[in-house]
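Database export, one record per block. Field names are fixed; values are copied verbatim from the stored entry.
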Amino acid sequence: MTDLSGQILGKYTLIRPVGQGGMATVYLARHESDDRPAAAKVLHRELAGDPDFAARFRREARIIAGLQHPNILQMFDFGEQGEYVYFVMQYISGGSLADELDKGPLPLNHTNQLIQQIGSALAYAHQQGVIHRDLKPENILLDEVGNSYLTDFGIAKIMAGTTHLTKSGLLMGTPNYMAPEQWLSQPIDGRTDVYAMGMIIYEMLVGLSAFDSDTAYGIMYDHFDKMPASPVRYHPGLPSAVEAVIFKAIAKLPGDRYASTADLAEDFDRVVQRAPHPEYRPERPAKRFDSVASAMVEDFGQSTYELPRVIPEELPDWVKKLEGVPGSKKPFRMTPTENEAPPSAPTAPTPAAPAVNLSLARPEPPIRPAPSAAEPSSNETILPHMLPPANVTA
């Protein structure tokens, strides 16, 4: 892929690449008039001529332009110039949550700050009818003071009145964070993002991903048939209520999860406010309980994949009972009947009572609220000419 450093796209000079994915490269850029830094996401030239990729890219631009929240990366501009299609966003220089997790687990209070912000951002997106469906540490950016910003809506789902822009026979997402209903190519809603958020909280507190199979499909079976080892088992200093919150968020059936990311964030905040030492940052565990670490899991687990929609022949019993899987003549339904029990957890059972009991703990002084995200230095607004054609849908 061609390095466009030094070239000018619209009002922006591209300085250097700061990130690259399968569809696009992100450049640090500067506005020609006020020298304001920005992030320019440029669709790879070889993909710009592909109608599917170009439509998906324009669709992402329209989604971001329509979301105005202090913890969602803001969009400044959109354009097409020669062979290049691009959009320009707010630049955040502090790296990603994935970079921060490379240093080890996070303290409870810092985890809580990020979860309150991302939970609010996702709840807002859901209210606008947008499901992220590729939530992962790489898609959460951090500024210099630790505030978080949600980004990369490239495979987001718009809930009403649209068609899909994914290739037939493929499912999309990042294996470590994909909910069971995503693997089964079934309808999703905000609780799909709740699941991914629970997986991220686990990783933030433990310092390891929840599952460690060495292939994408191995991770799929883990999502169907396992619960990760308790975070308290890794770090006994964590409040026991943390386990109840996480395991409710990552319940196999959407109906057993929190109804919204806001509800998840609220319960998590209650736990942290009563923790005796929320500022303590533990070390990364020396070993993984009940599983074997594999170097391949980073390759399979941390990148967004397009995977064949193959429903495996050997599924857990709870999946086989659901309507719509192979062998059933009824439509799929991710809700059990009265006689169907939710999935069991072979390694660490989900608590029978998902509500978190905090009545015995004495409240600690509240954590100071996270500073609000800084506003862009320019008063530039989204104008109609900046947006892709209105007939581009998802």
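Remark 1: DSSP finds twelve helices and twelve strands in the chain.
Remark 2: The first helix runs from residue 45 to 48.
End of record.
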